[in-house]
Amino acid sequence: MKPRDWFALTGFLAASFAASAIGGLATASSVTTWFPTIAKPAWNPPSAVFAPVWTILYIFMSIAAWRVWRHRENPALRPAVRALLIAHFLQLILNTAWSLLFFGLRRPDLAFIDIVALLAALFWIQVRLSRIDRPAAMLWTPYLLWVTFATALNFSIWHLNQ
């Protein structure tokens, strides 16, 4: 790998973990104050599960985006690569917005609207990743599955706390 490749991978990781940090700031106080007091379904995972899962997911999504970026010089793939990279950064915004809405504003209803949009974006990305880079699509799959689960969990929490 060239130094430029390492720099790009570092950039994708930095963008993902910046999104994570912003979301974490919104989440920090609510996790210990508001969240323990609201009704949750029996299948809500223990709090200790979230940080390690998200760490792995941010690493996987960064590597997937980086793998797509490496196809940027292929003229046949250039438009698809550009669209996927734009979608990647838009999904990071939706991902961060979810934390701000759910934990920061304590609005599971608004967070549900956001996560549905996020899930749609992730499906769109998954389909296109599978056409450009199969390993990237495989790296993206756990994120898609986790957000599918999180969408159901968000809906359940919203419903239980109306």
UniProtKB/TrEMBL annotation:
- What organism, scientifically named, is this protein from? Nibricoccus aquaticus
Please identify the protein, giving its name as recorded. Answer: Sensory protein TspO
**What are the entry keywords?**
Membrane, Signal, Transmembrane, Transmembrane helix
Q: Where in the cell is it found?
A: Membrane
- State if Transmembrane helix is listed as a keyword: yes
The residue ranges crossing the membrane are 52-69, 81-104, 110-127, 139-160
Position of the signal peptide: 1-21
GO annotation, cellular component aspect: membrane
Magnesium listed as a keyword: no
Q: Name one GO biological process term.
A: tetrapyrrole metabolic process
* Pfam families noted in UniProt: TspO_MBR (PF03073)
